[in-house]
User: What shape does this take?
Amino acid sequence: MEGNTSMIMRKVYLIIAASLVLAAGLNACSGRRNEPLRGPLVLTDEETIKGQKLFMQYCQKCHPMGEAGLGPSLNASPAPKFAERFQMRHGLGVMPAFKKDELNDEQLKQIAKYLKALKHHKGEG
Assistant: This one.
């Protein structure tokens, strides 16, 4: 029974990884790809503000302002929140995995909420 569960988990991981690769490929079709932010991003929701602080601490060095840096642009990524959280938790390629003692599940949700605000920010021209 334990071997069967392990096989199922491997298949789930493969499906999620394939989804992330597909989302990254679709990234090339997005209209916000590497377009810089225009105007200040004003956040009023406490969870999104916490997500911004966590992003600045853990993600900014590789994804500056959500743009491509060492890592790819996050602003144009069509990946759903669960896929973003999965990648943050388990890593993929050169992206490190953030274990629960580094970032708990609530913190991952906060970062995902900030990324959504960042992706949808239009700002003042």
Q: What stands out?
A: The chain has one domain: 2-120. Residues 2-26 form the longest helix (25 residues). Helices lie at 2-26, 46-58, 81-90, 105-120.
